[in-house]
Amino acid sequence: MSKVLLQVSDLTMRFGGLLAVDGVQFDVHDDEVFAIIGPNGAGKTTVFNCVGGFYKPTTGVITMDGKPIHGMPSHKVAREGLVRTFQNVRLFKNLTVLENLLVAQHQHINTNLASGLLKTPAFRRSEEEALANAAKWLDFMGIREYANREAGNLAYGHQRRLEIARCMITRPRLLMLDEPAAGLNPQEKRDLQQLIDQLRREFDVAVLLIEHDMSLVMGVSDRIMVMEHGRPITTGVPDEVRTDPRVIKAYLGED
Amino acid sequence: MVSHIKNALIAAVMAGVIIAPVFGLQIVRSGMQTHLEPEWDMVLMGMAIVFVFQAFVRPAFVKVMGRGERKFSMPVLNDTSRRAMIFLLIAIALIWPFFTGRAEVDIATLVLIYVMLGLGLNIVVGFAGLLDLGFVGFYAVGAYTYALLYHWAGWGFWEALPLAGAMAGLFGYLLGFPVLRLRGDYLAIVTLGFGEIIRLLLINLYEFTGGPDGISGIPKPTVFGMPMVRRAPEGETTFHEFMGWQFDNMDVIIYLYLMALVLALVTLFVSNRVIRMPIGRAWEALREDEIACRSLGLNPTNIKLSAFTMGATFAGFGGAFFAARQGLVNPESFTFLESALILAIVVLGGMGSQVGVILAAIVLTVLPEVAREFAEYRMMIFGLVMVVMMMWRPQGLLPMKRPHVELKQ
Amino acid sequence: MSEFIPQLVQQFFNGLSLGAIYALIAIGYTMVYGIIGMINFAHGEIYMIGAYVGLVTLSAIGVGTGLPVPLIILIMLIVAMLVTAVYGYAVEKVAYAPLRGGPRLVPLISAIGMSIFLQNWVAVGQGARDMAVPALVTGALQVNIGDYTITAPYSRIMIILVTVVLMFMLHMYIKHSRLGRASRACSQDLRMANLLGIDTNKIISFTFVVGAMLAAVGGVLIALAIGKLNPFIGFLAGIKAFTAAVLGGIGSIPGAMLGGVLLGLAETFAAAYISSQYKDIVAFSLLVLILLFRPTGLLGKPEVEKV
């Protein structure tokens, strides 16, 4: 039975005179793909940043599995199982692909100074495990051959996959994807749609998604929230949202 | 061509204005008055040089542009030959002092101290990307910890050494805690402030630290508890008496060098291991993109703190050794210039590159000794070199390919 | 009547004249930081060079020749401003401009190198020792409050007056001139200003030049007031002035003025009422505290990090 994982109520974010987000409310169940869409400037990424702990919301309550996370610093939020990708891919460009995946496992690795210096068996085991995990994800994403290359040298589509793998290797409960399809060609977008679905099914992770590509959104989401000018217009299943006149107006303007 | 000449003329005039009040017109005191001694040839020479440079040399340079940025890679040796290399180098380092004179060994000991300091700062600046301009403060803490432990409690070097490192590390932790969430340039200034505060405290807490005079008479390290001196204090045996050897001052120098070598090798070992450990990877990731790190659950403050503290601890060890070598400590040795020198070592060597740091430590310590005639110009050239390095090769003289983990396919 | 009030007034005056100097130097830091986001480490050295140029000029003119003192001082100031303008321009073009756009550590290290270079450039050229500056302005204003006399040396009054005049002129210029408007645009958003057709390189140079000239005035005036100088006065003065700039809100010119005055007062009061030995620590401690608790300073706006 699916239960509510992330709950956001009364979220507002004010930057000086600008009210970027006003009264946003939604929840994400632990087995669903939830998308936030809306015209540019609607405040979608701001919502992400608030949920992720990068901004401190002006008001609002955000809970993860019942535990309040609003106002928590971003690294603590991540440790609660909430990780995200970024609009401009934020890989560690000068580290190798493999190392990107190793760093992401930092909280699960043996980081004891003494064991590391002395290369104790416990340390060695931990490193091997981390390498094995990384290899597993590289295989899953089909980028194993690039393992030892600098992450910045990868093709854009592969960089995106790496970023997602990096998130997944932290064993999250909620994966937040910020415009994951931006800059991808149609085939890559189809692959992405499949990937999101696969992640949700095989890895027990919920997905919160910001996206502009309608066919992707409609194809993969369970529920969608539409935002405009910082406010939610409507929330519902794809079919409802697609035919909602308010949504059409928001995207296409007055007729 | 004409525009080159015009620019060159303007540059030459500017050069004239710049040189004249400093080198062109020397202020000379004569009784109550000051008058000026003009040295116009210096000014004219400077102007001419600038003119020629701007008019002819620079444009030619630009044409011959070859901005290739090849990363220097050490020849890849397999594990056995690498280990053999390392043993060979260590063996040479061990044997060498017995065949050279006192001055050379003395300088070598100083080099080793700077290697320790450079490796320490390398972790902070080169790996974690934290510009610490107050590094000398931790150096001072280490030195004074030993000095004070000796002065107030009669401790010897080997007992004080771990405490010196620990104190410096503690200072690093306490100072780093509030300060590490600041942005790069602010962090630099604040750490500079801390370094100065430590120095000022050392000068002013006269009763405790000896003030500007400092503390003297600090003993050198003992050999398994036996002091290496000409005459032993009451009831103790000197090392030479124990071995049945004739006391020779050179022995002390060599012993000091060997101990410095041991410490430096330990520092190198730890530094080497640490950058291949998860914490080392975290430092590099943090330097690349702090926001991405946070989004993955890495706590930036803790990670930066670990680098800061570790660097401080290395500095503390170096400081204790410095105190032992000099025999005395005073606040004069711990000015901002020292921090700048250690920073220059790291920058010159290539931030993050350990071999580079070692080489830079050698160059920057030996060169001033060798070029004694230029002593006046030393600091001027030092500053100039820093500027030039940033313009020409900010990655350092010997940027290495990063040591990284490889996945066997 | 107690000694407290007159003492207070005396220290207030002292602090004000010290603060004026800090303000003059601080403006250079704040303007440069506001536009290119960089701490000009070598700025303190420009202040020192200004002082030296003043002394050279004075030696060239010769004390005791017929010229009236105010005229001599004016000439010293003008020559110092012109020379340091060239220094400021050259340092920016040579050591900073080529490094713009790269990693932030690089220009900072270059600036540190420049600072060390300039200190020793002057030390080699004119000697590293303290050098005496003839007292051009002697005497003081004595004000009696009850039994106690407050002494206000004319040289210090001159500092305050000149600073106030210059601040006012700068404020007017920045507010009303084209160059001033362009400067403000650049400090708000450099890239946008560039796209709008403003020659940002020229504005940046202008910023360095103005900052240098103000620092030079500070250097000349303080040298006259104190009576001596050496090539290393720029280091401490620079850090303190930077503290003042941060205190007032980095990037804000009124902030630099306010910060300078506040720091001057704080330091003077600390020296008088706590301990004169630790007065330097006041500045450093203040710097650390501000950066920890209110990094945007008194007149600055809180920044939000864009993710």
Automatic annotation (TrEMBL), chain B:
Membrane topology category: Multi-pass membrane protein
Localization per Swiss-Prot or TrEMBL: Cell membrane
Keywords annotated in UniProt: Cell membrane, Membrane, Transmembrane, Transmembrane helix
Family annotation (Pfam families): BPD_transp_2, DUF3382
Keyword Membrane (UniProt): yes
Listed transmembrane segments: 40-61, 82-99, 111-131, 136-154, 160-180, 187-206, 252-271, 305-328, 340-367, 374-392
Domain High-affinity branched-chain amino acid transport system permease LivHM N-terminal: 4-96
Main location class: membrane
Organism superkingdom: Bacteria
Name assigned to this protein: High-affinity branched-chain amino acid ABC transporter permease LivM
Lineage: Bacteria, Pseudomonadati, Pseudomonadota, Betaproteobacteria, Burkholderiales
TrEMBL record, chain C:
Membrane topology per record: Multi-pass membrane protein
The keyword Transport belongs to this UniProt entry's keyword annotation: yes
Record flagged with keyword Membrane: yes
Location relative to the cell: Cell membrane
Membrane spanning stretches: 20-39, 46-65, 71-90, 102-122, 154-174, 203-226, 281-300
Keywords, sorted A to Z: Amino-acid transport, Cell inner membrane, Cell membrane, Membrane, Transmembrane, Transmembrane helix, Transport
InterPro entries: ABC_transp_permease (IPR001851), BCAA_transport_permease (IPR052157)
Family: Belongs to the binding-protein-dependent transport system permease family. LivHM subfamily.
Name of the featured protein: Branched-chain amino acid ABC transporter permease LivH
